[in-house]
């Protein structure tokens, strides 16, 4: 129940007013899946994070069928990254370098999105790490329990559109 409440709060807190129309596709472990307008996505909040400044951090995998985009990784960091700092995503023993800008980070290309998505399906834990503008180490930790099912639910919902 706590996971469900966390997701409902997270989806309302992160979203612009238009997201009020987001339709829940379900909560799977600690991941939620949603359909909103032309997009569908799986999303999770961190279980441990550097004290957030501003918007709440999250990891999401999104699909926009009309744009022919599927499996796009989006990370919202708990604090803005220092300009020029690497943003590293770790899934168990694997490390991926992301492209970051301020509070947000993405995989550098579709191939990396696919590799990260595959690693999330079998992984146990994901973490994202960078340096904030003030030099603070930013490290956000996510459980991956339910990620594969939430990612699949979002992808299937968008295919049905």
Can you tell me about this structure?
This protein has 161 residues and is an alpha+beta fold. It has one domain: Immunoglobulin-like (Sandwich). It is 24% helix and 39% strand. A ten-stranded antiparallel β-sheet has the order 1-2-3-4-5-8-7-6-9-10, sandwiched between helices. β1 and β2 form a beta hairpin. The longest helix has 13 residues. It is globular and about 45 Å long.
Explain briefly what this protein structure is.
The protein has 161 residues and is an alpha+beta fold. The chain has one domain: Sandwich (Immunoglobulin-like), CATH 2.60.40.
| Low-confidence residue ranges | 1-20
Described by the principal axes of the CA atoms, the overall outline is globular
Fourth CATH level, the homologous superfamily: Invasion associated locus B (IalB) protein
Averaged pLDDT: 87
How many strand units?
A: 10
Work out the strand percent. Answer: 35-45%
CATH architecture: Sandwich
- Main beta sheet: 10 strands, antiparallel
* CATH class term: Mainly Beta
User: What is the spatial order of strands in the main beta sheet?
Assistant: 1-2-3-4-5-8-7-6-9-10
